[in-house]
Amino acid sequence: MARFTKLRYFYAGAILERKEMRELIESNHALGDRDALDRIWSEHGYWFFRDVLDKDAVGAMRDEYLAELRKLDLVDAGSSEPIWNGKPIENFPATFEDLHKRRAWQNFVKDPRINAFFEEVLADQIYWIPIDYYRLVAPSKTKDDKAYLGLHQDGMSNPGIEFVTCWIPLAEIDEHTGGIVIAEGQHQRGYMDVTDGKVGFSQGPAIPEDSWTRAHYQPDDVLIFTKSMPHYGLGNKSADRFRLSLDIRAMRRSHPLPVVGKVKTISADEVTVMTEEFGDVTLRLDDYTIVRGPVPGSPNPMPITRFQAPAELPPGTSVMATRDDGRALILRPHL
Length: 335
Ligand SMILES: O=C(O)CCC(=O)C(=O)O
Ligand SMILES: [Fe+2]
Fold this sequence. Notes:
Elements: E1 4-11, E2 14-23, H1 34-44, E3 46-49, H2 55-71, H3 97-101, H4 104-110, H5 112-122, E4 126-137, E5 149-152, E6 164-169, E7 179-183, E8 193-195, E9 198-200, E10 212-214, E11 222-226, E12 231-234, E13 243-252, E14 259-266, E15 270-275, E16 279-284, E17 290-293, E18 302-304, H6 309-312, E19 318-324, E20 327-333
Parallel strand pairs: 2-10, 17-20
Antiparallel strand pairs: 1-2, 3-11, 4-13, 5-12, 6-11, 6-13, 7-10, 7-12, 8-9, 14-15, 14-19, 15-16, 17-18, 19-20
The protein binds 2-oxoglutaric acid (AKG) and fe (ii) ion.
């Protein structure tokens, strides 16, 4: 039996209701039992573990985020929780370059306690791919219940690599503060596509209302899900809490790894990437290659054509490509 939580919040005296949602099922009982973990993964497409990540390591990540909010003078110096102090918030940034520069998440996953957890769960050494997001979402009192991030699957436009997404709350995230929502049971339907500007499954029924699933997230929890899992991010409707989370993507090291490094040379037809794992790798770009270019001030690289690639991804740019027989399936920049 699925459990449901009713999400209610108040706005200007009126009760607005968020959709009724299922609660994520915890997988803690399966830790250490490979068969049970594998069964849950193929049936549900996710693992939700409560209270498993090392508290100090998660606390250090939270402090990194809080330091950014203090720099913006939006959280008071003495506060250990992400509570907005009421100062002007209109120019809240979409990216936090300093966190990237300080390699905050890379240091987090290097912590032996964090690394050991992911190695145990994935039963392999871990390779972290450079698709990563520091999510600091400011409270917004707008009337509409606009999503923070629209419906998608992480694998939709990232062919050629087997990865899982690890979504990590860094402070409490309740129903008002938002957070991720996944479509339980919908991960076995292939990829959605875009029809008339709307993302959805073009074959078969729409995603049933009762598949939407979330939790009241706590620091030290982690949600790990498959790249075909449909999901979106709720807006932050809380009065004064920032939503702090991190999402990073892990691969088993024994799987074919992506080509990660700096562009050495690039044309509309070919890119050479200098990598640590494989040395220099040359890949063909063709009209099927999903090429992305950087967007200043946004964490999301944008689709571009291969003809724009030399200008948008010049030598020296940090990129990730995936490959099929000498052809690039994707080519995307990262910070
Ligand atoms: O944090 C969110 O709102 C959504 C995150 C997401 O899309 C992901 O973790 O892949
Ligand atoms: Fe996602």
